[in-house]
Design brief:
2 copies of one chain form a homodimer. Chain A has 10 helices and 12 strands. Chain A is an alpha+beta fold. In chain A, strands 1, 2, 3, 4, 5, 6 and 12 form a 7-stranded mixed beta sheet that branches. Strand 8 of chain A pairs antiparallel with strand 8 of chain B.
């Protein structure tokens, strides 16, 4: 935490959806999309308190710190401990329980908004622990696989060690990512309980080999390696059965030239990766059609990797 | 297999020692050293047969196809099926059972020697299955983690899939690799039997995260990532106890600035990686001293990654 700098009066901050796991990177990798984004607008108040304003599109979201965005805003606000307050408004575009990192995006936007409003005493990296605390509130586990790419952008690897660290890997910008969200929900905690506790050595070696292949492909931009590596032998087999039409949607994506297709986070959103924007569009159509045949409406998003993460898109100074 | 080209009368081929596993890359990664190398010299004979000549330094090595080099030479010879023969002499510098890929080097040198002598009808990649067959003879398992880097050079990843493929990853040439071989032997088959059959999901995630970190570091040349990633939670804990002084040797390497230190292949050789040739030299001294204190003499080799693999170093044409 450094000395506070310039303090705008009003700001708008957007934080992107993220694809966690990326197949072989179960619990390790996350990648930021360009859209959809959650947005926070914040204005400074002369009184020393935080006021939360609801998003009319999600009237069920609580207007207190049970809401991840407001919880993280409060944590950052208390850590800065400024002599003025703020009004915070959340505009939610990433539905909760979608598998697209909605809670991480709301939390990242809130953290950056409060930090910016009070002179940016924290660096981006210093804000990550606040966002991860929000993830603990949202899903019960303080995991950074959505939080890190939502905040920092790009392709993030959670690197184990005495202390877990987030590595922002260099990532080729040539790939296009399609995310399709069907109209159903998966509960993150329940999806986590499905996971096997033990694996065979052979399964470990296969999955680790796929991960190394995928990461090498994403760094170097080699499509063939991404295609070879984008598989998940651990989470996908137990989670896929909770997504209606999973096998057909995946097949539709691969038939249209997707390099790989799997579950985004813990679902129900599914993602695919392609070599060109055109192919990604064709893939989105085919995946949506397959969901429709399984009885589900859906939304699709296509983007290259978002290398910026959470952005302050507007600010005003009096 | 293409049409045979120029056929030299005599050739000399060298194939390098290799470090398999590289810590987190258990059963997946291998890296070629500049030295030591096994050498094959071969001369064409007018009669249609292979003759094997012994290495006086290893009089115990059989002079028939129980010897991996001669076994692979015979396989390649039979596949080419030329109308003349060859005399093959093996000069062995990588001791059997060292964990430095000795059988892979002998096999790679033999395969390239026979192929070159009869006009190079096979590409390097086409020779790999022959070398891997040699590994099956040597250790009971047709594994390519030494064979691929010995033949092709560089850093090789065994990428799983419907068919296992070898990916030659781009690798930073800035690191220096120290390999120290103590005067004791480990039996590859026995060392393989020590491995656990099942792992916890947490162990898998840690090891896979280390592997992704290591591979990212080796591709991009980031020392800190190599240091974070070079750990092995699976093979090292059960194999280290069979290497006298293991913990002290590892500590000595790390104390001298090694980015990481683990078992080379299934041991007893140990390797360390460093940022500079000078540091690698200091590390070699410290590791040898620690082995000495454990009662073992040792040999050390230091080199950057060998990107060439098996080389034809000399040939004559009449």
């Amino acid at each position: 935490m450094k000395k506070a700098g310039q303090r705008p009066d009003n700001i708008t901050v957007t934080a992107p959806a993220t694809i966690a796991n990326l197949g072989a990177g179960f619990d390790l990798l996350g990648l930021a999309m360009e859209a959809p984004c959650d947005t926070i607008t914040a204005s400074r108040l002369s009184v020393q308190k935080l006021e939360f304003v609801s998003d009319p599109a999600f009237p069920e979201l609580p207007l207190d710190t049970r809401n991840v965005a407001f919880y993280v805003a409060k944590k950052v606000y208390d850590a800065i401990s400024p002599d003025t307050g703020a009004e915070i408004r959340l505009i939610k575009k990433i539905p909760p329980g979608s598998g697209m990192g909605g809670s991480a995006a709301s939390a990242a936007a809130a953290a950056v908004a409060i930090n910016t409003l009070f002179g940016s005493p924290f660096s981006r990296e210093e804000l990550l622990p606040f966002v991860v605390q929000g993830e603990r509130l949202a899903s019960g586990s303080p995991h950074a696989d959505n939080a890190a790419p939502a905040l920092l952008g790009g392709l993030c690897l959670l690197s184990p060690g005495k202390q877990m660290e987030v590595l922002r890997l260099p990532v080729s910008e040539r790939f296009y990512w399609t995310v399709v969200l069907p109209a159903c929900e998966c509960n993150t905690r329940e999806m986590r309980n499905l996971l096997p506790k033990m694996l065979s050595l052979a399964t470990h070696t296969m999955q680790a080999g796929c991960l190394a292949t995928l990461v090498s492909g994403l760094i170097t931009g080699q499509s063939e390696w991404v295609s070879r590596g984008l598989h998940d032998l651990i989470a996908e087999p137990v989670r896929a059965i909770h997504i209606p039409g999973f096998a057909q949607v995946r097949e539709a994506a691969l038939d249209c030239g997707a390099l790989g297709c799997s579950i985004s986070g813990s679902g129900p959103a599914m993602f695919a990766v392609a070599d060109t924007a055109n192919t990604a569009g064709t893939i989105a159509d085919a995946m949506q059609q397959a969901f429709r045949e399984a009885g589900l409406a859906s939304n699709a998003h296509i983007s290259p990797v978002n290398t910026k993460g959470t952005l302050c898109t507007e600010q005003s100074l009096s």
